[in-house]
Fold this sequence. Notes:
Chain A has 17 helices and 5 strands. Chain A is α/β, with parallel strands linked by helices. Chain B has 380 residues and is α/β, with parallel strands linked by helices.
Amino acid sequence: MRALLRRELRLLKQDNWQLALISYIPLLGFMLLWWLFSAGLPRQLPVAVVDQDHSSVSRMLERSLDASPVNQVISFTSQSEAIAAMRQGDVFAMVTFPYGLRRELLLGQQPQIDIRYNGQFLLVGKLLSSQLSLSLADGLRKLSRQSLIAHGVPAKLVAPHIEPMTTQTTALFNRNTNYVGFLVPPILVALWQLLAMLIFANALNKELKPERWQQSYQVGWWPIIAAKSLIYLPILLLHGQFMLALLYGYLGLPAAQLLWLLPVQLCLLLSVGLWVATIFFLLADSARVISFCTALFAPAFAYMGITFPTAEMPELAKLWRLLMPSSHYMEAQISLVSYGNVALMWQQCAGMAGFLLLLLPAMLLAYKRRPQNVAAGVGEPTS
Amino acid sequence: MNYWRWIVTDLLAIVRDKAIALTLFGGVLFYSVLYPLPYIHQVATEQAVVVVDLDNSSLSRQMIRYADANAQVAIVARANSVTEAKAMIDRDEAKGILLIPEGFRRDLLRGKQVTLGFAGDASYFLIYSAVVRGLTTAGLDVSGQIQLQGLLAHGVLPAAAAKQVAPIALNDVPVFNQGLGYPGYVVPGLFLLILHQTLFIGMGILGAGQWRQTGYWQQFSPLTTVCLRVASFTLLYAFFSAFYIGWCFYAYDVGRQASLSQVLLLMLPYLLATAAAGMAFSTLFNRRDLPTQVMLLTSMPILFVGGFVWPLTLIPEPLIWLSQLVPAIPGMMAMLELNQMGADWQQIMPQWLQLWGLCVGYLLLAVWGVRRRQQALSAT
């Protein structure tokens, strides 16, 4: 075993790319993706305002739009210019105060304010839509208040008159609806899974050289794979823990529990390893193994169910996502980090037990690929 | 061998190489189904919400019915206390809570303001926004109705009462992706990125396999070789692009506002710049299994820095500058503006020229790289 470990380390030392994959690429990747989203809370998003009324009311509403930290009002004189800016993505929403707004309001004719928001940039568009309604409602409340007081309603009764029901909305597990807490953990997990896949695939691909291939069957695959796992699993676990430390330690994202994530991370890595081993014995060609694994794991993020809820996926997608270790892992992580529910976490984690079934095709394929001149029995992967 | 035969040889080399064929033909087809598959139901509906009704009055039951009638919310259970409801969330049995406080009806009748409590699981933002949106709409409806009843009771005419409840109407409409569907949001940019990444991988594997062996790639001068290979990949990708932008965009009902000639005019420098960059990139590799790995790791950063998933105004400036060197970045944005958001050709001119600039720049780099490869091979 010690000889195998030493051989593995020697192979690792010769391979600059593999060295990069286990050392600086994960760190750079994690930091880069976090940096990209580091703004966290969308602020100062450009919004076009076309004021065709030029009245005290429209100016007041414009001020109340500008007062929201999410919007940054950019005034346009004509609607066509604002539309052009919308089409170019320079502004994400457009508010039009129509001509005669104040007059119609005073006459009680219910004027209409047009809001157009960019649905193509879904995340920004949805956010702006609710923010614009909120800040306009705030401005309108001021108007109603004045008119009610003028009509002799006592100040104490004004608020229930305007708004008999108020609401208090709580974002559970992510109090300030921070996008870092929402997007960055699954993205980093997806990246980490890709790294694990590449590292395992590269480690196995080392055995594809003709002379080593034969040797591997003589030594037996179990000790070889065990040696590889002994070296790479701890390194990958370290990456996983670094990821958690970055997110929940340094960035201080809320976490109910973290302790139990270590065994879940190990389960994810083992599942990825089983996938890679199966594909390795299926194709036995370095470039093709990588291509196939890439095709399998690249869309994992879309199937995690974080951005788009799992319940809304079609049946086929629900089946496919079960094949991805990361979807099980991410559910387990949310059960633990958000809900602090260890039992649920183990339940989600148990889904990964299904990946043990991959052992069968892997062993079968390994047996089929044994070199002809190696005596039967010695070459069996179970030796 | 003339130029045409060279291109045919190159295309045959692509098809016969199983690793490349798997990535190019398999990948392009496979991804066209696999990536949009989770999203084909477009929007999130019927999120499970648990009710904590501490009032148990006619009005609180009306509020619950209104909430349940909303498409985005489904009332799945009643809990007796907030703790109980919270436990249901922790067991993943519900995604949101609607809290109706004690004295809800009584306070409303007495003209006191009441506060409804909403909560949603913000570990999932689409679920959270659906829950909050659904409950807010239901709350506004009930509140509007109470206001209306109050006004009518005071003898205000029905037509006037409706206007008093909402003195100004807000006409809030999404544009470009009007259904706010997820495929329309993700597919256009993502598909261009898939074309970009697979082209890089194909070129990379092909090059890495050839540079250290004598072969047809040495026949012409570096400039001619680069131009010919760019031509052969552009030819191949013209078909892939036609499939993605022509067929898949229709199939997934993604916005298509540009004319055919405009799309062609945009795709030309996009494919040329990508192919030239892919050629320059391929001269860096000796191992056939490396290009895929590099492109796989860069996919997510390129997608997220593209400016449609996460707004450019929030991305750190240095990352944006750096990303401008990747042909996919101006390509994706120009395509979104032109085809999904209906911009004029004038408006995407900067990106179009940038693509041509990148094309020339990478062509020179590729020529330099191929010359070094040819010299290195002849030296041995």
